[in-house]
## 1
Amino acid sequence: MTNTSRHRAARRSALSPRARTVVLEFLITAGILFLIVTTARWIFAPDAPLGSVLRGRAAFVALGIFFGVVNTAIIHYSMSRKTAGHMNPSVSIGLWLLRVFPGRDVLPFCVAQMTGAVAGVGLARLVWGADVGLPQVGWAAVAPQPDWGFWGVLTAETVGQLICMTLVAALLIRPRWEWLIPGVVGLCITGFIMILGPMSGGSVNPARQFGPALWAGNYGFLTAYLIGPVLGAALAAGLAAALRPPLAPPTVADVLPVDIGIPAAPVPPPPFPPPVAAPAAAEGTVCPDTIPPEFLWDDPHRI
C-alpha cells in the first residue's frame, strides 16, 4: 500500500460511519444546489444559449424533467448503498416521524443540508461569477406570482410535501415495493417544478430555497418555504400512523388463566426452532432510511 493510500485509509477510519454519512449529505446537497444555480444561469441569463429555446413554461418543463431524473438517480444510489441522500430537511424529519430514521441523526442531517445548500450556491458564484446574481437569474431563488400571498405559498408547499411523503410512507410499509421510492420521489419533484414552479415557486425543500435566498438577500416568503414542507411531512406521518392497522386485541385464552388463577394448558413445542435474532448494530452505524425486511423483529435501529 502506498503512502497516499495509507493516508486516505487513515482519514476514513478517523470518521465514524454516522459522521461520514452526514458529510456525504452535505456534499450531495451542495452538489444539487450547484447544479440548480448552474442550470438557472444557462437558461435565464441574457446571454444564455438555452434561453432562446427554453422560454416561459417550457423552461419549467425541462427543469422538472431534468431534476426529476437527477434526484431519482441520487436516491436510487443512496438506497442501494444504505446511505441517506435526503437533500431535504423535511424528508429527514418526516422519516424520523415515520420511525424509519434515527432521531439522533435528524439535527446533524438538517444542519448538513442547510449549510450544504449555502455552500453549493457559493461554489456556483465562484465558478460562474457575478452572472448568477443577475436579476434574471436571482441566485436561482424561487418566488411566487404577485397574486400569491403568504398563506397561498404555505399551503402549496405543505400540500406538495404531504402528497410526496404519503406516497413514500405507503411504499415503506411494503418492503417489496421499496424499489419504487426513487422513481416516485423523482416524479413528485418533476411535478413540483412543472406545476408549482410557475405559480408558487415549487421549492418543497427548505434547503433548496434557504441557500439561494441567503445569498440573494431575498427573504420574501422564506418562512413559508421553510415551514410548509416540514408541516406537510409531519401531516403525512400523522396520516400514516392513523391509517396503520391496529394490533390484534388479546383473546380470552390469553387473559383468563392469569385473571382467575386457572393454570394455563401446556404449550406444545414449536415444530421448528425459533428464528435467530438479528445481531445488534455496531456503535455509530447509521440507520438506513428504509424499513429492512426484518422489521417485524426487534430491530435495534428503530426508535
Note: Confidence is low (pLDDT under 50) at residues 253-262, 281-303.
## 2
Amino acid sequence: MRHTTRRALVTAAAALVLAGCATVRPGPSGAAETGSRTTRQEQDRLLEAAEQRLVAECLDGQGLSLPPVNQARAPASQDLRLQTALFGKDPRELSLTLATGLTVTANSDGCVATARATLYGDQNRWFRAQVTVDNLRAEAQARMKDDPAHRAALDRWTRCAAPAGGPRAGRPDPVVAVRCTRESGLADVRARLEPAELATVRTLHRDQVVAYEQLRARALRRAAELSAVTRKTTTKNTAPDETLTEKKGNDAS
C-alpha cells in the first residue's frame, strides 16, 4: 500500500476499512455480542469512523494531518513523511500466502496499523483473519475452475470475447465481457457452483472466520466506546452556561 501522490494518500486513508469487510455475514459467533439491532453496514461505518479518528490522532501527535483532497500536491519530502507515518517503514512484518497463491503483506507500524491494533487488539491475528475472509470468494472462484461445466463455459466465453482471427486484447470491452458471460452460460454456472464452493472454503478456514467475527465484535465495542466519549465531549463543550443563563434571567426580572 504505497502511494506517490497526495491525492492517493488521502484516498487510501479515507478507505481504511477494507471493502471486503462484509464478505462473510455475521453468524452466531459474532451477532450476539455486537447486537442484532444494527446492520452490518452501520457497523462498518462505526468501525471506519473510529479507525479514521485514531489515525488522525496518531498523525496529529507527529505534527501531521491528512490534506484536503483538492489541495495541490505537496513536496515529495512531505508526501514521503506522511506516507511513512500512515503506513510504516519497510520491510513489512506481516505476511500471508493464500490458497490462490497470492501473498499479502502489511506493516505492523504506522498510524493505520496502530489504529487497528487499538481496535482489534491482536494485530497479527486480525491481519491473518481479515485477509483470509476478504479472499474467501476469490478462493471459491479458483476452485470452480476445476469443474468441467465451468471449464466448458469458460471456453465458450473466450471464443465469444476473443473470436478466432479477431483481436486478442488483454481485457475485452466491458460490454462485450458482460454479454459473453451471459451468452456462454458462464454466469449461470458460477451462480450454481459458487454457494457450495463458498461453504467449502468457509469450512476449510473456519478458525479464521471465527477469529474474524470475534475480533470484529471486540473492535465494535471499542469503537462504540470511542463514539460515546466523542459525544460526551461534544455535548459538554456545546452545553449552555447554566449560571450565565440564570444570571441573565434574574437581570431581566
Note: The chain has twelve helices and two strands.
## 3
Amino acid sequence: MTTPTLLNTTPAAKLPPCPAAGTNSRFWAKVSGGNVDTCWEWTAYRDPNGYGRFSIGGRAGQMEGAHRVAYQLMVGDIPAGLELDHLCRNPSCVNPWHLEPVPHAVNSRRSSAGQANAARQRAVTHCPHGHPYSPENTGYRKDSRRRCKACDRTSRRNRYDADPAKYRDIARRYRERRTAS
C-alpha cells in the first residue's frame, strides 16, 4: 500500500469544509491519533459492530459511518458500487489510508466472518443427501458455489417425469435452433 505525501499528517489539520459532513472541526474533534501509518480511533458513538457513527447535519441529521466521512473528506467520493474495506481490520479506525474501496464480495471474503464461512464450507465433504463432494461428482455454479451432480440429475429426472411433453418440446426447439445456425 502506497502512502500519499501529506503536508500535515494530523487529522485535525485545517481542511476545506465538506458540505456533507458539516464542519470539519466537529468531526476531527472525535478522532484520536494522527500518524498516517497508525489507526485513527473514533472516540464518539460506535455501533454494536464497533464502527464509528457521525451525524451529518447535527442532532437531527442523518447518521453516516465515520470512516466513510473521513474518506470523503481526505480522499474524495467513494466510487459507485464499492464499499470501504478496513485493511487494518479495526472497525473504529477512520484513517483513510487504512481504507480501500472494494466490491462487497471482496470485502466479505476478507472479513473474519467470510474466512470462517469459507473454512466451514470447505469442511463440508458431502451434500445434504449424502453424496460425496468428489471431483467427479462436484460442479460449480457461476457464483462459485458447489453443487452435487448426482442431486442435479435426480432433480432433472423428477422434473421431466412430472411433465415429459414440456421437456420434449424444449428439446425439440433446442435441436431446431442448433440446426438453423
Note: The beta strands are 31-32, 41-42, 53-56, 62-65, 83-86, 99-102, 138-140, 146-148.
## 4
Amino acid sequence: MVYTTAPQRIVIGGGVAELAGLFPLLRAELAAALAGYPGLPEHAAEDFVVPARLGRLAGPAGGLVLAARAAAAARQRPWSGAGPSGGTEA
C-alpha cells in the first residue's frame, strides 16, 4: 500500500493508537516489509507512522467535520422545491 499510494504520512487514531509500544513496532515492521526497496525519503522518517493528534477523538471529530462540510454545501445549493421523491410538493 505504501508504494501504491505513496503517502507522505500514515496517521493512526482511535483506541488502537493508545496501545503501548505500537508505533515503534509498526515502524520496525514497515521497514522490514519495505526491505530497503527505494521509495520516498519520508518512508524512513521517524514521523512517517504517527498517532492522530486527537487520539480517541479522531474518528468522531472527523465525522463532525464531514457533516459540517456537507451541511455547508447543502446550504449553498439552490432549493428546487422538489420533495424527497423528486416531484414538486403539493
Note: DSSP finds three helices and two strands in the chain.
